[in-house]
Amino acid sequence: MVEMVKKWWLKYTAIIEARLSLHEQHHKKDLLFWQNQLFVNFLIYCLPVSLIALLPGVIVAMINGYYVTATVDILSFLLIVFVTFFKPLTPGTRKVYVIGIFYFLSVYLINALGYMGPGVFYLFFTTVLIALILPIRYAYWSVLLNTALLLGFALIIKFGLFNSALIPNYSVGRWIAFSSNLIFASIVIISLIHRIFEKLQITITNKGHLQERYKSIFNNSPLPMWIFDADTLKFLDVNEAASKRYGYTKEEFLLMTIKDINSPEKAAEVEMIVKANNKSGHNYEGTTQHIKKNGDYIYVSIQSNHLYLDNHPVRLVQATDITQQVKYQLEVLATNKKIKESEANLRAVFDSAIDGFVLLDTQHNIKLFNSRATASMRFNKDQRELEIGRCIFEFVEIPQLVYFERLIEKVYAGEVIDYDRKYRTDKGTTNWIRYTLTPVYESHVINGVFITGRDITASKLYLKTVEDQNKIFREISWAQSHLVRAPLARIMGLVPMLGVANGKAEQREILKFITISADELDAIIREISQKSNDIIDKHPVPVNS
What is the spatial distance between Cα 209 and Cα 203, in angstroms, rounded to a whole number? Predict the structure, then answer.
């Protein structure tokens, strides 16, 4: 039953709107448009609702013998039906006919039924209706007309004309007292309607200007913008920037949905996001990829706002092309990855080096050091772990601090300094470290010091060994050139004398001296051989494995 009534009402409403079409005469930003809309709705509701007053009124009038009154009521209703459904009537004529019908009904009912009847109510109602559906000046004219009519009824009362129902119940003074209330109420209500309509016109005008401004911003925005239906996802409007950026004309856009500019694999996700935001009413911000008409992919930053257009949910979207930014970010990420890989490789080389490294900043604080630094550098006999951010002077023993500070200052002045330092280990052995202090340049300005430390104990020992060997070799050389030569020279001088000796006694004497010289030579050779063996024993020749 309810559904049937609803269908009947919708059909009835559609028929009347089709016959009237007053809303097509003016633009929505014009107050007259809304007055016409109000008049259309008045006629739509007037016919069915008027039956509430018509049927009981006609029945009561017929029962009490007021046949003329019943006829007037029925005639007024039929005239309203005629005005409503007679299509050739112009909007203005239709309004005048309706107002005339109510004036006729008001005058008759006041004259026939008196002041307490519905006539006075209809007279007041007619004035209000004029204020609502016509320019407000006609409502003020209506008040003057009402005043004239009420004064006319005063004359009827005074002179007893037309057998009016007012004559036995009112005197002229009493009638004017009662009538003045109607005039007062009419003026007050018209003034209020006038004031409301003035504000409404200002609101409509401002809204129209605001809409035009927003429309201008939308159309002239350098960023792509569009409006799409939140239910069907169809494009409802796009600006010129969107057409230029995506390659589609506005007409082509209006035949598409937002899924058409997204990749097929993302279409379902896009639809799900829109439905979720449509349900919650939340705005949306995110980054995605869109497809241009030529097939190119672009990265865009999406800002989507939930709106209602003609009471239907829509989405206003602004799409900012961030393709270049994304490419730049990807390049930065790739570069950072390479830098990290290079840093990792450099760190591996740095930590695997046999030398210890320490990098200082301009304030003598440690910026970086490798794993060999603590072991290869002995700034203090009680060496502790180095710490980044700590001053290098905190790790240098007091007796060496002034000397080390002077060296650092020289490096900051541009010098490269090498020096060796020995220290005794916990086992009592002596070790040597060679320090190299190098200035670090950035844009031709010294902004740090690079310290390397290398254990050169083996080198020092090797040099000591070489020095020892050289000393022995010098002794051997001197022995060969001096000690060996003397007995050898004597032997070489005595041997030829054996051949010319006079007698055995002289030969024995010569042999004696040769034997002494040979023994001396043998002793010298043995000493040289012993020294050579000592060198070999102390520094044996390595055997290849």
Answer: 10
261, burial (CB in 10 Å: exposed 0-12, middle 13-18, buried 19+): buried
Q: Are 456 and 432 in contact (CB under 8 A)?
A: yes
pLDDT in tens, 496-506: 776 666 777 77
Q: In the sheet that 417-424 helps form, which strands lie side by side, from edge to edge?
A: 366-369, 356-360, 445-455, 430-442, 417-424
From residue 370, how far is each of 302, 374, 436 by CA, in Å? 48, 8, 15
Specify the length of the chain in residues. Answer: 545
The model scores a pTM over 0.70: no
Q: How far apart are CA 505 and CA 502, in angstroms?
A: 8
82 alpha-carbon distance from chain centroid: 63
- What number of H helices and E strands is found in the chain? 16, 10
CA distance 318 to 320: 7
CA–CA distance, 185 with 182 (Å, rounded to integer)? 5
In this structure, is the dihedral angle defined by the CA atoms of residues 53, 54, 55 and 61, taken in order, positive or negative?
positive
Does an H or E element contain 239, and which? none
Query: What is the largest distance, in Å, between two alpha-carbon atoms of the chain?
Result: 213
SS3 437: strand
Which mean pLDDT values do the consecutive 10-residue runs of the chain (545 residues) have? 82 78 54 81 86 86 85 90 86 89 89 78 90 89 91 87 81 85 90 85 70 75 91 92 93 92 87 86 88 92 86 89 87 82 64 74 84 64 74 80 85 85 70 84 86 74 63 63 66 71 73 79 75 63 47
Per the CB < 8 A criterion, the answer to whether 380 and 453 are in contact is no
436 in Cβ contact with 416 (< 8 Å): yes
Token pair for 399: 């007796």
Q: Please return the burial class of 337, using the count of CB atoms within 10 Å of its CB with bins 0-12, 13-18 and 19+.
A: exposed
Q: Which residues contact 56 (CB under 8 A, 6 or more apart)?
A: none
Residues 398-432 as b or e (16 or more Cβ within 10 Å = b): eeeeeebeebbeebbeeeebeeebeeeeeeeeebb
